[in-house]
Amino acid sequence: MKPVETTSPTDEFVKGLWRENPVFVQVLGMCPVLAVSNTAINALAMGLATTFVMCMSNTLVAVLRHAIPRQVRIATYILIIATFVTVVDYTIEAISLDLHRALGAFISLIVVNCLILGRAEAFASRHGAGIAMLDGLGMGAGFTLALVCLGGVRELLGSGSLFGVAVLPAGFEPWIVMILPGGGFFTLAAWLLLINYLKQRRQADAEPVREALQ
Amino acid sequence: MAKAGKTLEIGTSPHIASGASVDTIMRHVVYALLPVCAFSVYVFGLAALVTLAAAVASCLVTEHLLCRWRGAASTLGDWSTAVTGVIYGLTLPPALPVWMVVLGGVIAVGVGKFLFGGLGHNAFNPALVGRAFLQAAFPVAMTTWYPALEADRFVGLPASSLTFPFATPVYDVLTGATPLAAMKFDGEATAALDLATGLTAGSTGETGGVLILAGGLYLIARQMMNWRIPLAILATVFALSGVLHLVAPADYPGPVFMLFTGGLMLGAVFMATDMVASPMTNAGCVVYGVLIGALVVVIRLWGGMPEGVMYAILLANAVSPHIDNLIQPRVYGTRKASGGPS
Amino acid sequence: MNGPDSERAWPMYRALVGVGMACGLLIAIVFAGTRPAIEQNRAEALERAVFAVLPGAERRVTLILTADGRVTPDVEAPGERFDAAFDADGNLIGAAIEASGMGYADTITLLYGYSPASETITGFRVLASRETPGLGDKIEKDPAFLANFEALDVSLDETGMSLRNAIETVKPRAKSEPWQIDGITGATISSDAVGEILTRSTARWVPLIVENRDEIAARGRDEAR
Question: What range does the domain containing B106 cover?
């Protein structure tokens, strides 16, 4: 599906949030989405780390796009992405050992997140640095938003808290399944269901107008 | 969302009705389950009654509301949701909080059945989907067992049943261990007489093994159930655990203990036989039954959990389309066994 | 490789080697920049854990137990690491030892404190586990369970080579002897596993710590100086 031709820089940023949301619409990068969305904080940290990597790699790929021959482009992209992932990995470990432990191997696995390579290949290698950076920022923001949506629901139901702060009364019985891997699938499915339902409703609302015009 | 009413029935061949329609069969399944329900109310008292009623009611209401919301005619009349509700209720611990029962009922029908496309399209037994969700979400409540024949079981409800929605249940009676848990964690065998009469702690409907068998025989006699599935399951469990017991009697419980404990009877007779989620051919049903039996033995004896019937059946449900793929019915027109989707 | 080919290959080398060198440089800079903070974080986390399992401890030294049963402060020496903890005056409080074993879901790694003076385990902390939240992870949170380890008897018998009484996990609220652990309802396998891990680890470590007690205590006096 070819996305609608975008025009303004703002649009490049905004499209990642909703219309082409990497998680809810493109369903990309599912591995970290399912694995580290068990609490809102983990989800936010993962989202921000991914945003940083995507933003930097998109910019660099766009800057170098004329200097990189087609034959070695994937290898070069991976090199660039892996570098920024390593930078993020060290930085998180320096900031908080607990957070680093909670995110575990998934920080390193940002390297193989198809979303980042996908944006580098499909977008950054064909656009200018400024636009590519905005695209990376937008996609990253959309990814972060989706992760926090998942992490928020899972933490709320699974531990009765949000961003580590208890929000539900003390007697609340946590839904253990929500912080287990299965809960990730359930929550993602529920969000996809809701978003597709809303979309279909909007389309159905637009339908009579189109029919009347014909 | 308004849609035109259905004006033309479209279906694939064959168009010959077999006499017993879905609602007749389902109604008889409910009849077969009634003695089991009555026995569980006798053993566990009002707690079992409330659990069963809440389970059935939540399934029926969910089905009705979802049909309404979709703009389709309500399918309450075909009894299938009632069967799901009763079976679901029978798999739950008697003193489970009512709010959990209702939540699981909504998931059973909403996720296990409706999302797959309603009756005839569910890949998994809906009752077990609901139970599996509860087991994963509330492992403590789902393994806290109300003891059998509690003295004041007809006077009042255990405090846990009436827990405020979404709150942690508090148990006011001393809870018992199921025979399987006692065996697995403490190495204690339950008296044979208690097992035979079903006077042990356990799920609402799993203890009355004899009555479950009787209900199954009733359905088989009326040709409303494929007897190959329960027979294959029970025979496999009996044979496998029998061999293991002979090899190492100290490590593995005997085959009769395996047959009459946990949810095996209920699962083999009423849950594995779900018409939609089990294979279509008779040969397929045997393979399916053997698979369930083997999984039950493996999970119970070597797994971390004392009981594995639910997971065994759900796994076999997932495999059953592939069994159908491997064991194709004979080409139409050549001599073919009477079976069909049963 | 002939002329035109190598001409086409040059931009590839340039791109890969150039980007690779730039990336390597960036990683090296970040590594150097974050290393002190990371080392400090790790040391602090270890110190918190050691002090938590050995109440009263205020100093800590990492020691190595070599294969022939000697203790050396040379952390580069081959052998197994453990931590000795001392109070402010350099008196030996005890040793913090890491142990691991199979739990319900995956390997449980824990750190426990052993006090040679009272011949007891003085506390333990789960370093890594994947036990089921709400059930198995009670081994980290259940106060009644943790109370078992405030003074768990691991005294040696007359030979000084093995424990007088092996650690034993019993049913909840059935503890009657100082070497028994009350299990947790609903987390039988996980609580048994903790008992198992401690039994195996103490059987090996306690005689060695007792044997090297003077050597270990000497390290504390060095530290205090």
Answer: 22-326
In this complex, is the C-beta atom of A91 within 8 Å of any C-beta atom belonging to chain C? yes
Q: Is residue B38 one of the residues assigned to a domain?
A: yes
Residue-wise DSSP of C54-70: STT--EEEEEEE-TTS-
Structural domains counted in chain A = 1
Q: Which residues of A touch C33 (CB under 8 A)?
A: 90
Whether residue A4 lies inside any domain: the answer is no
Q: Are B186 and C186 inside 8 Å of each other by CB?
A: no
What pTM was estimated for this model as a whole?
Answer: 0.81
> Is B262 a domain residue?
yes
Within a domain: A213: no
Q: Which of C104, C134, C171 is nearest residue B304 as measured by Cβ atoms? A: C104
Local confidence pLDDT in tens for the 214 residues of chain A = 445 455 578 888 888 888 888 888 888 888 888 888 888 999 999 999 999 999 999 999 999 999 888 888 999 999 999 999 999 999 999 998 888 888 877 888 888 888 999 999 999 999 999 999 999 999 999 999 999 999 999 999 988 899 988 888 888 888 988 988 889 999 999 999 999 998 888 888 877 666 665 5
- For residue B10, being part of any structural domain is answered with no
| Residue numbers in B near C105 (CB within 8 A) | 304
Parent domain of A132: 9-206
Note whether A97 contacts C20, CB cutoff 8 Å. no
Report if residue B1 sits inside a domain.
Answer: no
Please tell me the total count of domains within chain B. Answer: 1
**ω into residue B14 within 30 of 0, thus cis?**
yes
* Cβ contact, residue pair C134, B186, below 8 Å: no
Q: Rounded to an integer, what distance in angstroms lies between the CA atom of residue C123 and that of residue C100?
A: 15
ipTM: 0.81
Establish if A168 touches chain C: CB-CB under 8 angstroms: no
